[in-house]
Amino acid sequence: MHDNAQSENQNNAEPDAKYSQLDPTPDDYALTPFADRCILTIEAGSGGHGCVSFVREKYIEEGPPNGGDGGSGGNVYIQAVRGETSLHKLARRRLMKAGRGRNGQGKMRGGERGADVLITVPVGTIVREIQRHDPFETAEREHEEAERTGQMDLPGEEGGKGSYRKDKWLVFPGTVPTELNRMVFPRLPPPRRSHLAALQPEAPMWLDLDKHMETPMLIAAGSMGGLGNPHFVTSNHSRPKMATRGDEGMKISLQLELKLLADLGLVGLPNVGKSTLLRALSNSRARIGNWAFTTLQPNVGTVVLDNHKGRPAVLRRGTDGELRENFTIADVPGLIEDAHLDRGLGLGFLRHVERAAVLAFVIDLSAGDAVAALKLLWKEVSEYEALRERELNADTERRMVTYRPANSETRRKGTSERLESPVMNPSIEELPYLTSTDISSKPWFVVATKADLPGTQAVYQDLQMYIRQINNGEQPHPSGRKNAWKRNVQSIPVSAIKAEGVEILPQLVMDLLDE
């Protein structure tokens, strides 16, 4: 008797445990940090300083110089890897700086290289350069200008004579100012760049990291270390008491943006059950509530197709030929009427819609006319698409190459015959949003939620009839665009809170991803 009661209690507890994941309390959720755009400053490592040192041995009163060269700075690499879904970690850091090279030491010991930095980003990230400061290019221009104007000594003169520059030279410790004034400094060596710089992308940087990368990509090579005092030995100066400082590392400001947020994007009005559907399909703990705008940022969940414990739920191969073990779903915040006019943060939410490969329009059958709700969603998406096209055309005209003739100051210097080269608009304002596939041309389907409630069957039949007319060409596409995707659009009735009808969605999504 007691055993039967205990088993009955366990059976009653199982449904409650099952539905607690799909119908939790408002405070039972996990807020996953998310960012799909960020500004990141990277800084390559500066070089270590050269060493001023001399041989110190018994019976050698004034030994020859033996200072080592400084180590080169660390490099900055980037790598797109599977499993990353957000840029929020980089958005928090804002600055990624490689290590500085160690200074040279006596006995001709060179300094160690600086520590490298690896930036990991999600697959589908676009990297665009905003601003760059390269000390090597500045030093190279100064060197060429000095040679052109004759401010440097003749190259045939041994050693050449230069002046003391505190930002370039290091002198022997303990050198007093009077001795410093009498010292003869050689001509500064020409600027040097690491041979690894040949592997960097050309400036301005624009990278489309749309595939998983097995090896990182170099984006900023470390600077060269300074030269030790043996480099400045001449016939007249056998014991130079100076060495050069290491070069400063380059700084690059980058804008990182996710081109593809997820494989499937859930689009719908507020409070239609998108977050519940995400919970039913994945192990996500998105916040669920009976008020509008419960979701204010995309929640990304992962649907596992193969847990390696038996036959996969769906057998599909990706573009790389490997079996797909999962796909991602983005729960996009709810859209309202006039969202394309930025009502209810509409522009920010609509931007996430175009980052999904496949769209699922989530319609609440208990809210009334499902056809009108679907048309409203497509209207906002279509208006946003038209707005983006106008912005793109205006931005293209604004970023035209402008020509500037030489100014009067340049003409006074005797270089009037050389005109300035055309330059791009030097504004470093935020870059425009990425252009991607038109939203209306993406594969899509309809998920009709709350189909278990009474009175929703007739509403779903009207929705099903409307979609059938779209497939047959009897009704135009809801977006009103000619090249819109309308090949075998499907509607799936589900009860997300009971996890009923959702089992066929992974198969449908994988079929659409293949297209």
Automatic annotation (TrEMBL):
Q: Where is this region: Disordered?
A: 1-25, 132-162
Q: Residue ranges under compositional bias (Basic and acidic residues)?
A: 132-150
Q: Does the keyword GTP-binding apply?
A: yes
> Looking at the keywords, is Endoplasmic reticulum present?
no
Q: OBG-type G domain location, by residue?
A: 262-514
* Pfam families registered for this protein in UniProt: GTP1_OBG, MMR_HSR1
Xref: Gene3D superfamilies: GTP1/OBG domain, P-loop containing nucleotide triphosphate hydrolases
Top-rank taxon of the source lineage equals: Eukaryota
Q: Where would I find the Obg domain in this sequence? A: 32-261
Query: What spans are recorded as compositionally biased (Polar residues)?
Result: 1-13
**What GO biological process terms are annotated to this protein in UniProt?**
ribosome biogenesis
Gene Ontology cellular-component annotations: mitochondrion
List GO molecular-function terms, semicolon-separated.
GTP binding; GTPase activity; magnesium ion binding
Name under which the protein is recorded: GTP-binding protein Obg/CgtA
